[in-house]
Amino acid sequence: MTAPHRLRLPPEPPPPLTGHLPFADVPGARDPIEVTSRWLTRGGRPWFPVSGEFHFTRCPAGEWEEELLKMKAGGVTVVAAYVIWIHHEETEGDLRFDGDRDLRRFAELCARHGLDLIPRIGPWVHAEVRGGGLPDWVLARTDAPRTDDPAYLAPVRRWYAALAEQLRGLDRGHGGPVVAVQIENELYDRPGHLLTLKRTAQEAGLAAPLWTSTAWGGVQLPKDELLPLYGGYPDAFWTEADGGWPDTCRKHFFFTHQRDDEGIGADLRPTTVRGGDPEALAERFPWATCELGGGMAVAYHRRPRVDAADIGALGLTKIGCGSVWQGYYMFHGGTNPRGRTTFLQESHATGQPNDLPLLTYDFQAPLGEYGQYRPSYDELRLQHLMLADFGQRIAPMRSVLPERLPTGQDDRETLRWAVRGDGRSGFLFVNNHQPHEPLPDHTDVSFTVDFPDAPPLTLPATPVTVRRGAYFCWPLRLDLGGLRLEWATAQVVCVLDGADGGAADGGDADAGRPVLVLAAIDGITPELALDARSVKAVRVPSGDLTTVGDRLLVTGLRPGTDALVEVDTADGRRVDLLVLDAAAARTAYRGPAWGADRLVLCDGGVVFDTHRDEVRVHSRSSEPSFAVLPAPPAAPVAAAGTVKETADGVFARYTPVAAAEGPGGADRVGRTLPVALVRAPGEAPPTATGVLGRAGAPADGHYDTVAAEYHVPVPDDLPPGSLLRVHWTGDTGRAYVGDRLVADQFYSGRVWELAVDRLRTEGDPGTEGLRLKILPLPAGAPVHIPDRTDDAPLPARIDRVEWLTVHTLLFRAS
């Protein structure tokens, strides 16, 4: 056996600073929000927010409510949204807050569904938008934007006043959802201007307990006036095409206490400027984030491909590093609105350093441009379930690094781990995943954690292999309902109160006991260590129960829906532990359903709509199966068809039968559509060079002369919720209904998805069909595309177009 990895938790530090910052909630708030130097509180208790970015102006207003419910089901508690000035006032005086620009309606929907809101009001927001979001007419009025130039501040005051009017009555003082306001974005060296903007916003009538600012890039902030928020991305589109994987991204897969990311926005500022004091900020403010990469955009010259594990590993690692606020950019992708006179994306044409697609802003986000569920949504939801129940414990816990640390960012051999602990208990974090350069398996692994107020723990009893790509969090000395769980080699998911643990037959007399739900780690057999002094009796469904000193060890447990360990505690209570397998755990949703708080296992998406008293399932199957714990008194009722009930371990499993299939029928899901080549591609155009010497997107005229053109008929009877999936290769692609551009994409190796419902709002694709124009990429083009080798050319080609339908099924209590 190799020596265990060792870490010593220091004694409990002195209490954090309180009352030292000028952030105040409204008098008499029932759950006042406050900021200490190490964590946030709400209602006097530690608060661990999870925020997700969603740009309402990049999504049709008719879809907002369902997409917000998807975010909430994914564990997001706070919605962050840039309010992009040029989207609202492209022409001076024509200020629009109607339709897809209706900020007030969006805020009211957040409030309706119990989501907090952070408007990020700029005026400069970046967001890969033309002029960083500043309208052309504002830029034409001043030579000194983003300063206290009176010619700049005058229209800013009017903009802020308009926002205050839209949000009037939606502040905390009126029971509204606005918990914070972000001022500007990525402004690193003008603290005086940031303070001017904050005062201007307050004078306009904007109010919130928290005022925030992005804090990367050696930021200089006005002292104590803005809560600094940090970020970190798994990859970046804003670096050079030939620069490889940026070191500033690599570091986010290590456990470290460095908050700043020097790489974000580094193409817009001199990276040698460092006027801030990160140590002073760390002493006075908690480690809060607003831009952990939920994905990554693609620019023309550099097109990163981000996978679910990249996003999940980065998020979990940041919790282990000490984050007390998980904030993701983007959590939901979108589509740029059209300008009245031009497109509104960032581009070389407006002097910005990157050429972005005209329309798509999918961002490879957990929820895609059209609301598609991505595997990263499942990875993050699993972590957010843990934070919902244990964030109050984790937030005050300090992050402690082990005795043996990686020697540098090129060290792939040293196991990466850390502990969040409070001197008596904790959570052990391990990350053995990073993009691009896989990490090796680690065999014969055990850990020793020295506690200052308790004996050390060495775990597990049988050393394990930490596989390449694994990342997880294990509980240490977790007290729950009279039971002490010394450790578990499975990740905490949540605690169900009132679960009967007894199956679909209605349970038993012990109904009401808590169930701790855990998720097994691929390649690691679950091991549960119970403090024998807290246990009267244990019933194990499989595996072995042995006594080792003052611990009871449960080993050999087969994880699954029936892996329920029942514990009678020494003080006469009952606690159960359910260990799901890794795959099932990633189908877990938790929310109010059919009159109680329940855990739902479903391969599709699940939203809990308390206002309509229903659960909606989004699935590629018209008859999705889902399991529920605790089982409701009677099977839920489907809006169409009947529901069959069976037992699945301790869960009740429900399958709708003869559910409404809609036009087209479920049996057609996944069929291909005919694709006709209308025009063969010409010779690939030479690559243009733009700002910073970077490759720029091809000129519009090439789509009419060089691009391959295909025609795809779109049947009128494709059901609502259908997606077209274009399997293609090339450089760039554009999609048209008639002559109207409806979608575009830069090739990065991913399938190109288009929502049929969106196409129908743009025209009549059933009559005209869809026109797809694909440009080839020339050999030697200075463009980074994953898996492209030897600067090879890429032909313009569509291999096939398939369609699938995401059905929405409604279930109510019987």
Automatic annotation (TrEMBL):
- Domain Glycoside hydrolase 35 catalytic residue range list: 41-384
User: Mind telling me what this protein is named?
Assistant: Beta-galactosidase
Instruction: Cite the SUPFAM superfamilies for this sequence.
Output: (Trans)glycosidases
Annotated source species: Streptomyces neyagawaensis
Please, which domain of life does this record's source organism belong to? Bacteria
User: Which keywords are on file for this protein?
Assistant: Glycosidase, Hydrolase
InterPro entries, sorted = GH, Gly_Hdrlase_35_cat, Glycoside_Hdrlase_35
One Pfam family matching this protein = Glyco_hydro_35
Question: Which EC number(s) does UniProt give?
Answer: 3.2.1.23
Which family, according to the similarity comment? Belongs to the glycosyl hydrolase 35 family.
Q: What class of enzyme is it?
A: hydrolase
Residues in a coiled coil are none
**UniProt-recorded Gene Ontology molecular function terms:** beta-galactosidase activity
Listed PANTHER family = BETA-GALACTOSIDASE RELATED
TM annotation in the entry: none
